[in-house]
């Protein structure tokens, strides 16, 4: 979203801490073999291990101050083996989560760090990990049937991140893009923000490999050329974009082909 967010910058580290704590609280009481409905290949222990590993990895990046992708092999070689029981999994998660928060808190947001995204800073890792913790906190809650509210401003920022970074496209050398349909507007009913997305097919060669993916061109606000609209609360739109169940209604109006093109982008792979 624009840097001038209403209410000032988002406290990503506060959200990271709160959602990580809620994630741990829920899974500590969940049966180990309980299936995760939003990640059907995983049980509760798999989910606990996954977020622990994610937070360990980015904690390593931040603590070592890594900026060179060539250093990742050595980092991966130091990975911890998965503990055999819930007690070990919880201990691993606690250590990984505490270090991630503490280390990021000690770094200026503009600190350069390796990141797969274009924004290679500690600030973006804060943002990304706050959203990672949010989504998996929801997964944990859905596993036990105890869902709690999602912060509106964080969810709106999550919508922006998915549209622009996870699913967005900006011109790159060696790649071309062509619109697959007219634009569609995505509107939050509670966060006072909207985006216009144009589904495009991106083809060409990037980093020595062939590319053929579907992505969005994204701009802020409505567009008179839009032929359809998707509307809901920020939390519900964030859940929808991450293939998690919404609590409220998301309305879809307008050209069916344009709406189908949006869905096609969301079902394409994320590299």
Automatic annotation (TrEMBL):
GO molecular function annotations of the record: isomerase activity
Which InterPro entries does the entry mention?
Maleyloyr_isom (IPR017517), MDMPI_metal-binding (IPR024344)
Key words of the record: Isomerase
- Residue limits of the Mycothiol-dependent maleylpyruvate isomerase metal-binding domain? 14-140
Q: Would I find Isomerase among this entry's keywords? A: yes
Q: Which domain of life is it from?
A: Bacteria
NCBIfam families listed in its UniProt record: maleylpyruvate isomerase family mycothiol-dependent enzyme (TIGR03083)
* Protein name, entry field: Maleylpyruvate isomerase N-terminal domain-containing protein
Question: Which organism is this protein's natural source?
Answer: Terrabacter lapilli
